[in-house]
UniProtKB/TrEMBL annotation:
Residues 39-56 have a biased composition (Polar residues). The gene is cysC. The keyword Phosphoprotein applies. Belongs to the APS kinase family. It catalyses: adenosine 5'-phosphosulfate + ATP = 3'-phosphoadenylyl sulfate + ADP + H(+). NCBIfam families: apsK, PRK03846.1, PRK05541.1. It comes from Selenihalanaerobacter shriftii. Its EC number is 2.7.1.25. This is Adenylyl-sulfate kinase. Pfam families: APS_kinase.
Length: 249
């Protein structure tokens, strides 16, 4: 296995499926404060695939002896972040679950990050105002970049409604190691699939800042793959995504 260095520049437009459940979002990252009174210089040494920024001059980057390339060689795969974005109910989580299962069958080291799940722990302190949504994605983007640096195939399923934060996630992972999947479905279709009745509650004013109803969703400008879930089945969607991931290995 060769460690991938250059990402193919082709973009894929796919068309997709009908059954799905809605999914919220979430994210939070803890910062460890390192007190080093004897050294106040800023150090820019960073791991090969994870960039970092900090406002403190007392926090140093501790370089290890195991590289990203070492991890990829050991796992016989390349680390990559596969970022699923789309409205609640579009099919992100449904597809990501199946992609994870199939990759595991192939012997791949893969982990799935889900918008609902992270709000039970890592991002349980966040709400759904724009500032919280941005922080939600910032934290998950950092986590996904770390997982990618570990050599994992990381599936991140988040509404991630704002282009700026999707671009941030791409930057953190690295252009050559990031696949953005736009899971496309319009609001009426997503509302029909909604078993929790969230869209109806949002329209009735019972839920604030609900994407697609009372909060905007910015259609992706830079997606590597577009899956229209009105047309493709779940199985067809999964197969197309597996093919794209395989091209990155």
């Amino acid at each position: 296995m060769n460690v991938k260095m250059n990402k193919k520049e082709s973009k894929t437009s796919l068309e997709g499926f009908k059954e799905d459940a809605p999914e919220p979002q979430g994210i939070t990252e803890d910062k460890e404060q390192v007190d080093n009174d004897s050294n106040e210089q800023t150090v820019n040494r960073q791991p090969s695939t994870v960039n970092s920024t900090t406002s403190s001059k007392n926090i140093m980057w501790h370089e290890g002896k195991v590289t990203y390339e070492d991890r990829c060689k050991n796992l016989t795969q390349n680390g990559v972040v596969v970022w699923f974005t789309g409205l609640s109910g579009s099919g992100k989580s449904t597809i990501a679950v199946e992609v994870e299962k199939e990759l595991l069958k192939q012997g791949k080291a893969v982990y799935r990050l889900d918008g609902d799940n992270v709000r039970h722990g890592l991002n349980s302190d966040l709400g759904f105002a724009k500032e919280d949504r941005d922080e939600n994605i910032r934290r998950i983007a950092e986590v996904a970049a770390l997982f990618k640096d570990a050599g994992l195939i990381t599936l991140a399923s988040f509404i991630s409604p704002f282009q700026e934060m999707r671009d941030f996630a791409r930057e953190r992972a690295g252009e050559d190691s990031f696949i953005e999947i736009y899971v496309k479905a319009d609001v009426p279709t997503c509302a029909e699939r909604d078993p929790k009745g969230l869209y109806q509650k949002a329209k009735q004013g019972e839920i604030d800042d609900f994407t697609g109803v009372s909060s905007p969703y910015e259609t992706p400008e830079t997606s590597d793959v577009i899956i229209d879930t009105d047309k493709l089945s779940i199985g067809e969607s999964v197969q197309k995504i597996l093919e794209v991931i395989a091209n990155e290995q």
